[in-house]
Design brief:
Layout lengths: L1 H32 L1 E14 L2 E5 L4 H4 L5 H12 L8 E5 L4 H4 L38 H11 L6 E5 L28 H18 L9 E5 L22 H22 L4 E2 L17 H8 L10 E5 L7 H14 L4 E6 L18 H18 L3 E9 L6 E7 L5 E5 L1 H10 L7 E7 L8 E7 L5 E7 L5 E6 L6 E8 L5 E6 L3 E4 L3 E8 L1
Parallel strand pairs: 1-15, 2-3, 2-9, 3-4, 4-5, 5-6, 7-8, 9-10
Antiparallel strand pairs: 1-12, 10-11, 12-13, 13-14, 14-19, 15-18, 16-17, 16-19
């Protein structure tokens, strides 16, 4: 009797498994070969976007020295101009003077400082005096490119970030720690470092930015990726580690000086925290994200924090880590929004191509999926790539500055340049993400999407198709929208545009990113 029951149970389970397999098989065939649906709902709204940006670090110190004015103009147009990425966020690297004291393999990674070290006599109050800085001769190459970018009229936010305090404020007199995980900023220099940042930012605001637009938003980010080692013999660039307790204490000092400065100078500068190296809080960092946040909460400055920044390094396209971080923020800090302020793929490129990087959509997808998932899962309000311009050979640039065999200077886009353009050109400041439900809920066919209602009342639907098949997709919820502007980037074309009347469905090419801008 028992044997019969066991056999009957096994038979039932076998039938159930077979039925599930049959259903999944039918579902898969329908998804792969049939028409799927993206349902849009403008009444379901999420974050409002502030835009897209990239960093000026390192390369601009050489680029700005070129005598070829048109070459520099072209580079900035490719990044900040309407014919290019139309980036609206400029990340300006405030150097710590590493070029004076540190022998980095790439001298540009020891960025030039405006402060004149000969004016320091042991009294740190000199850092609060603008007369001790040389704004006429130092960092002029970066200022040159900065002005060219500002003149294009799209920049409405500038983030001034520092990788390290000035070397005169550090324990070892260098712009990286003597040992890994050294807290290199002297505690008695919290005030001096705060004044250093404020003096430099105020000069650049009053004398450079205000020439173009005095209402540009100014953000000061004095600390970058505090969790990382930033020290020892293998240090290759300016950087400073901070444990949670000293970082929270420094932020409190900086915020106090910032409030005083704004009051006395009638400025509206804001503080950014804390450019976290990544958000893999639980498994991968020596000091975890939540340990920093717990320390920040102990100080008054945290009461005014409505926004934090982080980087997507290490998490790449992971759904798990994004969901983990999103759940954490929703549970403990529901009123704090998030920006993604730095990312690159951290991979060596391909040889022997001139550009030295992967020219295919495979690398484009590595950028596109990070942007898409940061937007959809983390609700980031802005997104910035790491180096806007790089030399080639490493997957860290949007535009590559190259020298041909005959010495000709070249500018060449990477495939991710065009992938990012789909986002930066079609999601403007003020665009609101709306609900975009995709009927392939199991994610079998390789399609991901996001949708935004734009300030001009158009709707942008951006679709990634990481599969070898074209997809026919119905667009629902578009009452009144009749015209489509379609933009395609795949392995064969970059930014191919066509317009047509909406017939209810759109075709998405294989291995592509496509944007559909819908208007009434």
């Amino acid at each position: 009797m028992i044997k019969k029951r066991v056999l009957k149970t096994i038979a039932c389970l076998t039938c159930a498994v077979a039925l599930v397999g049959c259903v999944l098989g039918i579902y898969s065939l329908a998804v792969v070969f049939g028409t799927t649906t993206i349902s849009l709902d403008t009444s379901k709204r999420y974050q409002t976007m502030e835009g897209f940006g990239a960093s000026s670090a390192w390369i601009y110190q050489d680029l700005g020295k070129l005598e070829d004015e048109s070459f520099k103009d072209t580079a900035m147009e490719m990044l900040y101009g309407n014919s290019g990425l139309a980036l609206n966020i400029f990340r300006y690297n405030i150097g710590a003077g590493g070029i004076e004291v540190d022998n980095y393999e790439d001298p540009a990674r020891g960025a030039e400082s405006f402060f004149v070290a000969d004016n320091f006599d042991g009294d740190y109050s000199v850092f609060a005096d603008e007369s001790n800085y040389d704004f006429e001769n130092r960092d002029q190459a970066v200022i040159d490119t900065f002005e060219r970018a500002l003149s294009l009229g799209n920049i409405n936010k500038v983030v001034f970030f520092a990788n390290s305090p000035h070397y005169l404020m550090t324990l070892n007199g260098k712009t990286h720690g003597e040992n890994v995980y050294d807290n290199n900023l002297k505690e008695e220099c919290y005030e001096a470092f705060s004044q250093y940042m404020l003096v430099i930012v105020n000069y650049l605001y009053e004398n450079i930015i205000c020439k173009y637009d005095k209402d540009i938003e100014i953000i000061i980010s004095p600390v970058n990726e505090p969790q990382w080692k930033w020290g020892g013999e293998e240090a290759t660039q300016e950087g400073c580690h901070y444990d949670p307790k000293p970082l929270a204490k420094f932020y409190n000092t900086f915020y106090s000086r910032l409030k005083e400065f704004n009051l006395s100078h009638n400025t509206k500068f804001e503080m950014d925290i804390f450019e976290s190296g990544n958000y893999k809080m639980i498994l991968s960092t020596r000091t975890k994200f939540n340990e920093y946040m717990t320390e920040f909460e102990k100080y008054e400055f945290f009461e005014d924090i409505t926004h934090i920044s982080l980087h997507s390094y290490g998490a790449t396209t992971s759904v798990f880590y994004r969901e983990l971080f999103a759940d954490y923020m929703a549970k403990y800090y529901p009123n704090i929004s998030v920006s993604m302020s730095e990312y690159c793929t951290l991979e060596w490129g391909l040889e022997p191509t001139l550009i030295g990087v992967d020219p295919t959509m495979a690398m484009g997808f590595k950028c596109g999926k990070v942007i898409m998932r940061d937007i959809n899962m983390l609700n980031v309000t802005d997104w910035s790539w790491w180096l806007s311009i790089a030399r080639g050979g490493y997957e860290d640039g949007l535009v590559y500055w190259l020298t041909d065999e005959d010495g000709t200077q070249l500018l060449q886009e990477s495939k991710r340049y065009y992938v990012m353009k789909h986002f930066s050109n079609h999601i403007k400041r003020g665009s609101v993400r709306i609900f975009s439900g995709y009927s392939d809920f199991l994610g079998i066919n390789g399609v991901e999407c996001c949708a935004f209602k734009n300030p001009d009342d158009s709707i942008s639907v951006i679709i990634l198709n990481d599969s070898n098949r074209s997809r026919k997709i119905n667009l629902k919820g578009l009452n009144g929208y009749k015209t489509v502007r379609e933009v395609l980037t795949d392995d064969n074309v970059d930014w191919q545009v066509r317009e047509y009347e909406l017939g209810g469905s759109v075709s998405v090419m294989p291995n592509s990113i496509m944007t559909f801008v819908l208007t009434k």
